[in-house]
Design a protein that fits this description.
Blueprint lengths: L14 H23 L7 H23 L9 H47 L27
Helix pairs in contact: 1-2, 1-3
């Protein structure tokens, strides 16, 4: 057995993988935007597992570049352009996704508020004022008691 010293592993950045991962993540976000637009929020959960996988894979590539900044100099110009194009598309979709999330959140808040108001209205007991009126019967009512003997 030889005891040659191990050569350090050379870090390699595959830009096309990064482009593919980013494009797929943009596609998932676009699906999410469509679902938010249709207010099918429950269906978004099905996309989360793949979304997290893609985010983690892209994060690993970012860390690789952080540890080996010289790798950026090895990227061919066409790959740089492809990456730039997909990142611009991704950012546009991300911005739209953010807007739709805010709209969905606002709509959800208004629905909850409307339900709360209805529940409050239906659980109020009529209260008579000094004139014998309530907010439910805005005219004067007579109080009648019967004296009944059996």
């Amino acid at each position: 057995m030889s005891s040659e010293p191990k050569k350090p592993a050379t870090a390699e950045l595959n830009v096309q993988d990064v482009v593919t991962l980013t494009a797929r993540l943009a596609q998932l976000l676009a699906e999410e935007v469509d679902l938010l637009g249709e207010m099918k929020v429950a269906k978004i959960e099905a996309l989360q597992k793949e979304k997290l996988f893609l985010i983690n894979a892209l994060e690993a590539q970012r860390k690789l570049v952080d540890r080996n900044p010289h790798l950026l100099e090895t990227i061919p110009s066409q790959d740089k352009k492809d990456l730039q194009d997909v990142v611009e598309l991704f950012n546009d979709i991300l911005e739209e996704n953010h807007r739709k999330l805010l709209v969905a959140k606002e709509i959800n808040h208004k629905v909850v508020q409307a339900i709360t108001d209805v529940v409050k209205q239906s659980t109020r007991r009529p209260v008579y004022d000094g004139k014998g009126t309530t907010n439910q019967a805005p005219y004067e009512t007579l109080s009648v008691t019967l004296d009944k003997t059996i």
